[in-house]
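dumping these here so i dont lose them again. two proteins, back to back, each one seq then structure tokens. dont judge the mess
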Amino acid sequence: MNTRGEFIPNGCWSCGSPPETGHTPRCEATTSSDKIVHEAKEDAKTEREGTIEEVTQYTDQAIDEVMEYLEQVFAYEHVEQNFRFHNPEHTRGVISRLERILDTMQAGGVQLSHAERDLGRIMAAYHDTIQGWEVNQDWPEGSEDATYGKKMRKRFTKQNERLSGDMAVRAMEDANEQAGKRIFTEEDSARVRSGIDGTVPGFDPELGTVIQPNAEASSDVLVIALALADLGEAGMESPDVYLTGGDNLFIEENMDMWDLDIEDLDDEQKAYYQGRMTGWNNFQPIFADGRRKKLDDEIASLPEGAQTLVRNLFSHFDETITEARERAERRADMTFEELYEEMGFLKGDIAGSVEANRAYDEALSEAKAAASKVRLDQAAK
């Protein structure tokens, strides 16, 4: 059938359009995330064997396990594998925001089962488990960045999300094996993968903010909810949460500034590093305003009632933008030493943890092995 309820022979599975006319706008069949889920529905004829209580039980278990992993690997300070922003606290925040968003969507008319909500929680808990990266220190010859040896973290986007999805699916498969029955179906696994894939970031230079094209192209409410939760601090949390997160992300990205010997820096070096910090502070209100302007696009596929309630949930944009501007102005008058300390560079142990690095390397190797197995299994089908 098409969107008007008319039957069309050989029509699209989603919008019903005949092959010769193409798909309707926002047709699910044309979006990668929804296509993955649909293909899983077609391929997986098995049904869930677990009860609602068992789905929640094994969801809670999978989340407990990944949070223990995140605490071990990412919760320490100032070593190369450390993430001051993408850490267990960020994951807990995403889980919390996702649950609030799903509550709001349901109040606005979105239909969600208990099992679907559990899948959403798995997506949120596992969305940042793998954080592969390399050092970017390739700057134009003769530039200040090259002169002072700027080192920025360059993430392996897309690959990180794919491997994080593999890790989530592995946890779901382990639950099935432990239970001796199908708690999570292949469709569940595909949906979790597509949800995590929806958090792959892009950047909109006109809005000056991060966007998530895969999620925006999807009509799956779980994919949309996770994407909103992942970037939801500016609109859903108090301004201090967003502002502290901004400082932590700057520290996480600017690797060459972690252990500066500030007593030995000359005035030109101080001015260079202070310029980078000031530029970041000035960018914070722009980023938050861009997120506010992007919200309507990101919730456009929801029912109107749900759109209204979700907009109301994102009620902190104005105060966050105002406080970000005021903080940038106040920090513009600081000395280099004052700003370096206030942004948090003097917190934590620079020595780091060999044990945590080893644990991360092992988890990354296991995730890659699991990903290879999944691809081999798919090729054999």
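---- next one ----
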Amino acid sequence: MKLFNPTLLLALSACSSHAAPLTADQNWPQWRGPLANGIAPNGNPPTTWSETSNVKWKVKLPGRGSATPIVWENQIFIQTAIATDKRIEAPAEKAAAAPQPQVAGAPQTPAEPPPGRRRPGGGGGGGGFGRGEKPTEVHQFVLLSVDRQTGKTLWQQTVREEVPHEGAHRDHGFASHSPITDGQHVYSWFGSRGLHCYNLKGALKWQKQFGQLRTKNSFGEGNSPALFGKTLVVTWDHEGEDFIAAFDKYSGQELWRQTRDESTSWATPFIVQHGGKSQVIASASRKVRSYDLATGKLLWECAGLGSNVIPTPVAGHDMVYAMSGHDGRKLLAIRLGREGDLTGSDAVAWSLDKSTPYVPSPLLQGRLALLLRGKGRQALLFRCQSGPAPLRSPAARSFAGRLRLSGGGQWTNLSDGPQRRFHRHQELRQAGSARDQPAGRPVRRLPGHRRQ
């Protein structure tokens, strides 16, 4: 069994006691925070810390993963995948099948799909940078509840135990989905391992299974669910049959499902209200689409992004900003309130075809949007309404860097490397003069957890 030594670290100023229950925007209930956009309106995190300063506790976590911890009052929830001592032997290659007799007039089925076509239900083809091989160890897919004041594990639930059916990218492993909570229940989404609802004491209320995702190049899974009111939304985009579906958060009953024609994407759906209507934005390679949250009706769609879509969209100024940064870098500023196919129309207020993020999702504050360019080597500021000329400022190299904006307008990113380091930056300014400053000594774990 491989041993992993991930650590969860809590900054001191973020864990003070509260006499009254916290409101939703004072918690961190989902991937990208209370507003699903990376901004903590009431946040006041420390900008320096060390082993002896501004750290209340630090604990090791079992397993491996890159899921974001979520916080509700005195509980922290995080997902992890734990490799066990149980192993299975890789199945032997099947012997070549004997030639089948041909029936006159019967259509012949090719052994491989035509070039450029996906095999229905099949995984990605060989190769691919960072691709991991299919494991032979049984993994436990676990949801943890940790006491926010002490770091003590309150409860641990194994939602599924199995051998993963395919590999995962070496940067994230098998626990990249983040849970989500409404303060009454916590919803654990593990993609191929299903959707599970627990109360805050760890009792299972309902669960759903959807089959197996077959991701491009076996890069693995990684989006998170979205929640608004009583409706929980997940997307299922892979190298097979695709869909987006909504569920009643109390019972797990499926409210609606819409089929999609997509390749593998990792973007988390984003719910926005506009014109008195709630809509869920699903960003993907072929099209960005908007669905009525209540009915699932397709409201609008817009083509133009590149492949391997990962960033989650953000919204503001009556527009939604969707982007990709792999093969075909693109940022689309799409006006809300339109219907139908918006591709090439004036509904696209402006667009950009360079300097867009591959993995990091953007921040939006006031009139400015902040991106990590490409793989995080440079931070870019944009004027949301006018675009597209960026206001550049240097940032430390931060592959798959995560950005968090506190209520004071300061933003931080986490640099990757032999030793991870936080960098704090000045308040967003129109001049784009964010200055990179090391914040304390290097730290290794926050918010994700990976093998040391």
